[in-house]
Amino acid sequence: MINLNGKTVLITGASRGIGEAAAQTFIEAGAHVMLTARDLSKLKTIKKDLGDRAEFFAGDISNPNFVNELVDFCFQHFGALDILINNAGTILPIGRIHEISPAEWSNVIDTNLKSVFYTVNAVLPKMIEKREGTILNVSSGAAHNPLEAWSHYCSSKAGAAMLTKCLHNEYFQYGIRSMGLSPGTVATQMQAEIKESGINQVSKLDWSVHIPADWPARALLWMCGDEANEFIGKEVSLRDEIIRRKVKLV
Predict the structure, then answer these.
(1) Which pLDDT tens digit goes with each residue over 63-95?
(2) Catalytic residue numbers?
(3) Number of other residues whose CB lies within 10 A of the CB of residue 144
(4) pLDDT band at 165 (very low <50, low <70, confident <90, very high)
(5) Considering only CA atoms, which of 180, 202, 182, 200 is closest in space to residue 191?
(6) What DSSP string runs through 41-83?
(7) What is the pTM of this model?
(8) Nearest-CA neighbor of 89 among 19, 2, 29, 28?
(9) Element (H or E) spanning 139, and its range?
(10) Is residue 142 very low, low, confident or very high in pLDDT (cuts 50, 70, 90)?
(11) How far is C-alpha 220 from the geometric centre of its chain's CA atoms?
């Protein structure tokens, strides 16, 4: 396992699914972990389970004022922020374009795309000053393929994937590593929501084909190490058997 003793990681969407699994994985790797999500009670429970090297700051990641407070709190509490994992995401409501209100469509864009910009915008000055940092954005196959009733999700993930490339283009010279992770279908609450909708081919998948949340969590940890440097500026896909072997998932 990669040793992250002395490093601090900020994980968004940390109250469930990939984010919760990543928090456990990074704690096991020796890191200090700052958790954020809207669910205060769940964050309190997770922090209690993870111990003193974990802390939380609950709120709405799609609010830029909250994001600035979150990043400030992380530096005040841990004195550093070395790794940012943008994992927060939503897909509800699932519906065709004419069935979704502008407010509902915008909410998904705010959570899945704008929040990525807000966190990146807030952490970059310190990373530039330090000339070191890793930014990992959880992507999706939906970033590259249109899916019925997912116009908001596909558009937001496509935007976030391009933002990752822009990050690399602008900040690699400052020692900042930027990558995306496309995990495939994961056995999380979001996947349950997709199945319940009954719309498009993804909802028809048997539950047994979905990977456990700790797989992308372990991939995110692997991406923080030198072995993943060949993928800087790119998107790592957990559908790729070669990647699964590199992460030691198979």
Answers:
(1) 999 999 999 999 999 999 999 999 999 999 999
(2) 153
(3) 14
(4) very high
(5) 202
(6) HHHHHHHHHH-TTEEE--S-TT-HHHHHHHHHHHHHHHS---E
(7) 0.97
(8) 19
(9) none
(10) very high
(11) 9
